[in-house]
Amino acid sequence: MTNKDGTTPAPVDRRGFFKTAGAGVAAAGLMLTPGEAAQNVTQVFSEKERLNRLASNSYPLRWLFKSRAGGRGGGGRGGQMSQQMKEKYGEITMLDFPQFTKDTFQGVVHMDIWSSLFGDVTDETMFSQQGRGFDPGSASGKKWLDQMASRLVKTGTHVHHISNNAPTGMSGPEEDARKAGIDVAKKWLDAAATLGAKSMRVNSGGPNILPQSANGPDGYPKNDAIVPYLRACIESFKEMADYGAERNVKVTLENHWGLTANPMNIRIIIEGVNHPYCEASPDFGNWEHEYLLFSGLKDVAPYAHTTVHAKYWDRWATNDVQRSTRIMLASGFKGKFALEYEAGPWDGVEGCKYLYKEVLAALSTPSPVI
Fold it and tell me: Staple 307 to which of 22, 161, 266, 298, CB 3.0 to 4.6 Å?
């Protein structure tokens, strides 16, 4: 398969990937004390370069999007929040989002778009009957993707990342469901290639509350229950990474619950897959406890190269977006910071504008790192 510029992707050597990348990962995975960080931060940006590191994010703005009849998936969300935000900012669809991005976030032309907002909500033929939302493999779905691609050209914008909730079952335990989930992911990787996306998140799956260790026969803690989930997830992401490589789209793991709630599991899966088209896309706020906010991010930062979610979430007493941004920069991250406001004192647009200012401030002064 050829790239959009007519070139042919280089063959992927999965086996040798971490052998050659290992030195860089080890160097990036520092404890990042202030002194070490000062030595390692070398990224200095012009204003244009700083803006080029940002991506809008459709998830926090989902309240603005038109909904399917009956409020079913494949569109925005109803309720009082949606009504208030639409009165303030207007109602949009994904085809409107590129221009909305340019109008709302000055200088930003890259986007992270959420799978649940794809499609024409008035055309049921492009939505799955199995409850997976938009079907990128349907005839009408493909036509819509072409429309979206044309809208990108018209507005001079780019889909950088797709935050995808459609593929499921990647960690088993049901093998048929796992294979079906991979098939769905492949259709979405085709869609991502149509839109020129650089990366696409696929959820790891696994129990929302992970299996815990129990005393083994030798009297020491042992967690055999989690191993089959990790093994299945690694195999799933190997297959998706191979497919993504043929389409020049990276498959990413976000700390988005399930297995990936634990940053060590993200590392285990990525190292097990051992493929340049499988990497991390960390989220600043999706952690189970406060001690992971910065330490967990430092753990996975060396495995992220393309996309990160710069998040504010009032779940946490501390939301130091600038500190988290600097942690990513100190690790050598050169990708995009997608502005994902979760919840707090602002509405979705205001929250994303707050993140816009915070990330730009950190890009302006990328040190010190604590």
Answer: 161
- CATH number for the domain that contains residue 351: 3.20.20.150
How far CA 137 is from CA of 170, 178, 186, 191, in Å, comes to 20, 18, 10, 8
Q: Is residue 236 part of a domain?
A: yes
pLDDT category of residue 124 using cuts at 50, 70 and 90: very high
Count how many domains the chain has.
Answer: 1
- Residue type, position 255, single letter: N
CA–CA gap between residue 262 and residue 254 (Å, rounded) = 10
pLDDT value of position 11: 60
- What is the β-pairing status of strands 221-222 and 214-215? antiparallel
> How many CB atoms are closer than 10 A to CB 177?
14
Please name every residue paired with 308 in a beta bridge, in sequence order, or none if there are none.
337
- How many helices (H) and strands (E) in the chain? 12, 10
Bridge partners of 110, per DSSP, are 55, 158
Yes or no: say if 364 and 49 are a contact pair by the CB < 8 Å rule: no
The pLDDT tens digits for 145-171 are: 999 999 999 999 999 999 999 999 999
Residue 284 lies in a domain: yes
The confidence score (pLDDT) of residue 132 equals 76
CA dist 289 → 240, 292, 293 (Å): 30, 6, 7
Expressed as residue numbers, the domain containing 104 is 14-208+220-364
Place of tokens 């690694």: 234
Least confident of 190-194, 210-214, 303-307: 210-214
